[in-house]
Amino acid sequence: MFKGFSNSVRGASHEKRNLVCQDSSAYKACDNYAIAVVADGHGSKKHFRSHIGSKAAVDAIIETIDKFYSDPDRFEECFQKNHKFVLQNIEKQIISLWNDKVLAHIAENPVTREEKSDFTNEEFKKIPVESYYGSTLIAAVMGRKFSFGFQLGDGSLVAVFEDGHTIMPIGDDESAPANITASICNANASRMFNSFYEPEKKILALLCSTDGLYTSFGSDRDFLDYHTIIAGQLHNAEAFEPSLVKNITKRTHFGTEDDISLSCVFDEKLATEKLEVLQKAIEKNKEKAAARKAKLLNR
Amino acid sequence: MSNNRENTKPASAFDFDDDDPLGATEVSKKSLVIFFLIDTSGSMKGKKMGELNTVMEELIPEIRRVGEADTDVKLAVLTFATDVKWMYSAPISIEEFSWAKLNADGVTSMGAAFSELSARMSRNSFLNSPSLSFAPVIFLMTDGYPSDDYKVGLKALQANSWYKFGLKAALGIGNEANDEMLAEFTGTKDTVVHAYSGSQLANMIKIVAVTASQIGSKSMTLSEETDRELTEEDVLTAKQKLLGEQIQGLVNQDDSNDVSFDTGW
Fold it and tell me: Choosing among B5, B94, B129, which should be mutated to test the A contact, i.e. which has the most A CBs within 10 A?
């Protein structure tokens, strides 16, 4: 049985300045599939409605995946035959639906004088409407026969396999400080997606998070090990969820102070069956982390 | 079952539980890497190197205080003489850093040091920490002119985005150090300083390293005027300008007046 949870917490820096959380997160768990989604509104000057844009992104993704899964057997057959083509279709439809949503929002909520006050008239005219709502997005889908996911912009997607092994299946490009974050509001957004498809290995859980979580870790390995610990608690997810919310809140206060969202979908039966395996993996990870640290300090 | 939570806030944000299964996972503070590029060629032998070792040991606790609030400052020390060599195999948190005394010998392979630095300033190498939040600080110290073709290494460095967005400063030690060449490295004369004596060397290293750490770890992603995020370029420009102004201001206050390296030492 698929299950899930999702949470977004406001970043400490945003709290201090009384700014809204720019992140949104959601999940949906059904009999045939489960989907976890997070979106990180850009929050910079010209993206002044990005908290609404991130909400529109998670809604657009869930609605789109729902539509594709309306006939699960047919969808799975098509996806397995040509996953790249189907993924591109999904991505294009998400962008189209997101555009519909933000254009409907602007039609009902015209730009206010206060929102315009940060710009000169000339500056404001140059900003495309969609940019007001700019956001990243990440989605992970667990199906009956395969799993897949896609990402536009920064953030992380982690897959936990039944043996406790964790990976980030969507590769990260060398990111320079000057890089511009890919956004759903870009004119060429459909060409900026990265995706993964896992047709064979048994996945226990898929977790998506906005970059505020990743940046609260000292290394990729620590970040992945954190996900194994989460997987070790999924047999009793409802009891664990408050701890997770406290932990991500702590991470934004003592880490990079950014908003943090984490959304997870998992196979509850597998999480229960593999509990012992996961606990062993967690212990092994701790030993390896201690050995890594000792090696680093050795000149 | 579905759930959609936007902008949720926990009821008690700081009520942390001791038996939290995630409690043992360390939270990394925002981090900053300071690169020290140190000339250890033969001409540094004697009191220059002795003074440098002493001041670097003293500097660690001072930088530690800069990072205490909310930034984890990490140090990476690259020495260059006939060979180039890292003190540790990766940047080390200032909390765990201990200075290894340096010795001077050989020629000045500064160009090779620039190439090595460029290779390591990458997400795939020394700058791979997820918590890395600030562009690095790069501090060059030398007492002479490079004995290799430094322009080749500098060209590689100038193509590196971390270098472009890093805060760069340089210290010339003694009469032989060439400030024009150091300004080529920093991109501006404002962050080039010169020390002609032991006490000046100590003062300049502390002024530059501490000021650069303070400015480097300053969060400037949100503009004070608009509460909107600034671009990386805005932040770099503002920080490099501030560093130049503060260094020049502090350097002009320096009134050390002891015996110069080149005459007395």
Answer: B5
Considering only the beta carbons, identify the residue of A174, A222, A255 that sits closest to B124: A174
Evaluate if pTM is beyond 0.90: no
- Using CB atoms and an 8 Å cut-off, which of residues 29-88 of chain B contact chain A? 29-31, 70, 87-88
SS3 at position A142: strand
Q: How far apart are CA A76 and CA A131, in angstroms?
A: 34
Domain ranges of chain A: 2-297
With respect to CATH, is domain A2-297 assigned 3.40.50.720? Answer: no
Beta bridge partners of residue A159, listed in sequence order: A167, A206
CA separation for the pair A79, B179 (Å, rounded)? 63
pLDDT in tens, B26-65: 888 888 899 999 999 999 999 899 999 999 998 888 888 7
CATH classification code of B26-251: 3.40.50.410
Q: How far is A69 from chain B (nearest CA, A)?
A: 15
> How far is A298 from B118, CA to CA, in rounded Å?
24
Tokens 């700081």 — which residue? Answer: B14
DSSP collapsed to 3 states, chain B: CEEEEECCCCCCCCCCCCCCCCCCCCCCCEEEEEEEEEECCHHHCCHHHHHHHHHHHHHHHHHHHHHCCCEEEEEEEEEECCCEEECCCCCEECCCCCCCCCCCCCCCCHHHHHHHHHHHCCCCCCCCCCCECCCCEEEEEECCCCCCCHHHHHHHHHCCHHHHHCEEEEEEECCCCCHHHHHHHHCCHHHEEEECEHHHHHHHHHHHHHHHHHHHCCCCCECCCCCCECCHHHHHHHHHHHHHHHHHHHHHHCCCCCCECCCCC
Q: Which of residues 86-115 of A touch B (CB under 8 A)?
A: none
Please tell me which of the candidates B9, B30, B219 has its beta carbon nearest to residue A10: B9
Q: For residues A141-162, give the mean pLDDT.
A: 95
Nearest to B262 by CA among B48, B107, B87: B48
- C-alpha B265/C-alpha B258 separation (Å) is 11
State the complex-level ipTM: 0.82
Give the separation between CA B116 and CA A177, rounded to whole angstroms.
20
Residue B1 has pLDDT above 60, yes or no: no
Q: Write the pLDDT tens digit of every residue in A165-215.
A: 999 999 765 433 334 568 899 888 988 899 999 998 789 999 999 999 999
CA distance B232 to B223: 12
**Contacting A residues, span 187-246, partner chain B, CB-CB under 8 Å:** 214-220, 222-223, 225-226, 229-230, 232-233, 240, 242-246
User: How large is the average pLDDT for residues B76-93?
Assistant: 95
CB contact A16 to B (< 8 Å): no
